[in-house]
Amino acid sequence: MSNRKNHNNNNAPVTDLMQGQKAVHFKLGDIENTKVRLLDGKCGVKFGILYSTMIESDEAYQRPLDLKRVDTIVDVFDPRLVNPLKVSFRDGHYYIFDGAHTLAALKKIHKFESFPVLCMIFYGLNYADEAYLFALQTGQSKSVASAYRIRALAMSGDAKAVDFVKRVKDAGFRLAYTGSSAPNTFSCVDKLWRRYKEDPETFSEALSLLRECWHGEHWSLAANMFGGVFVFLKAYKKKYDMARFVKNLSKIGDTAAIEKKMSTIGVKDARYAFAMAQIYNKGGRKDNVNPYMLYDEVA
Q1: Residues 6+ apart with CB under 8 A from 177
Q2: Rounded to whole angstroms, what are the CA distances from 42 to 45, 137, 299?
Q3: Among residues 242, 194, 249, which one has the least CA distance to residue 217?
């Protein structure tokens, strides 16, 4: 939804700080190994002043406002330290893609009356470009928002992010960007993204194993459960039997059973994988895997 309001008599910036000059054109560096495709001669940027009521937020790719963060900005506000908002002029509208929390804080300070604000105004961007730039800005300015960054990358058409989302969907799962305990739904988006970038094929195989063993039960989609399966596969990919894994591990009904057999050494993904290896070995001697191999794995 858009939060656009028409200001009394204004459809244009209050002041164009580069009046009489052409928009500055420049190119972005590579992000996520994606081909550079923004601000290439058709797109440019100017500095100008807009009324606050002219600026909209496209919530399709933006993260929700963190009201506590807004209050913190208000509490420590110093006008000398305010950076220009970054907005895109598209289809007659000004869409903010960096500085939404600053704008919300300024609105609170101004008691929600209209006020002029300095902006860096981008021209010639389309919707996908905005999402892409939002993803870039989010990656630099707030690491907590990595899940929203991934969503924005996918919406911008970034090849890796699109493939990542497709693999999750093809395995019968969904991604939740605000946390969820629903069946078939991952909320550990950042963990999945990191493992996908490490090895896309092992990532897909781990998704399939999770589906076969626990059919999307919400407890089985915790970050360390996925991480444990991923590390197990990286260690034993050519040595394990999938049917045996499913038979033995599917008997587990919660993470407590895994945690009872965890190693006390290493990071949690490797410790979960260690427990899974022990459960995998149960009931047989032939073709067992060696859990201690996991100490050599980087998890």
Answers
A1: 63, 147, 148, 151, 189
A2: 11, 21, 44
A3: 249
3-state secondary structure of 55: strand
Q: Show the domains of the chain with their CATH numbers.
A: 15-148 (3.90.1530.10), 159-296 (no CATH)
Region at 121 (left for phi over 0; alpha for psi -120 to 50; beta for the rest): beta
DSSP run (H or E) holding 51: strand 44-51
* 174 Cβ neighbours under 8 A, 6+ residues apart: 168, 182, 184, 185, 186
pLDDT in tens, 33-78: 333 344 555 677 889 999 999 999 877 777 778 889 899 999 999 9
Rounded Cα–Cα distance for residues 249 and 226 (Å)? 13
Q: Report the distance separating Cα 15 and Cα 32, nearest Å.
A: 36
Is pTM beyond 0.85? Reply is no
